[in-house]
Write a structure and sequence with these properties.
Number of helices: 3
Helix content: 40-55%
Distance between the termini: 20 Å
Order of helices and strands: EHEHEH
Number of strands: 3
Radius of gyration: 13 Å
Largest sheet: 3 strands, parallel
Shape: globular
Strand order of the largest sheet: 1-2-3
Strand content: 15-25%
Length: 88
C-alpha cells in the first residue's frame, strides 16, 4: 500500500517545518509514501527553503505546489484552497 501525505504549508509555520520533514523522511524509510506540500506563502522564497529541508533530511518522492493568494484573505480560505489542490 502506498500512502499520500498532503498538507498545506506557510512560512509562519517554519518553526516546526524542518522537524516535521525529518519525521516524514523517517516514516518513508518504513513505508513507501509520496508527499505533497501546498504552499501559499508570498513569493517562492519559502518553497526554496522547504526544498533545502527535504534535501537535508533525505525526503524522497515529494512535490511542492505553490499558489499565489492575497495574504489578507482569511486563513480558512487559504487553507481551503490548498486542501482543494491536494484533493485533486
Amino acid at each position: 500500500m502506498k500512502i499520500l501525505i498532503g498538507t498545506p504549508i506557510h512560512q509562519v509555520k517554519d518553526y516546526c517545518m524542518e522537524r516535521w520533514i525529518k519525521n516524514v523522511a523517517q516514516l518513508q524509510k518504513q513505508s513507501p509514501a509520496d508527499v505533497l506540500l501546498v504552499d501559499n506563502s508570498p513569493g517562492l522564497d519559502y518553497v526554496a527553503k522547504v526544498k533545502n529541508y527535504c534535501e537535508k533530511h533525505g525526503l524522497k518522492n515529494y512535490r511542492i505546489e505553490h499558489f499565489e493568494i492575497y495574504q489578507g484573505h482569511p486563513q480558512g480560505e487559504k487553507i481551503g484552497r490548498a486542501r482543494e489542490i491536494i484533493r485533486q
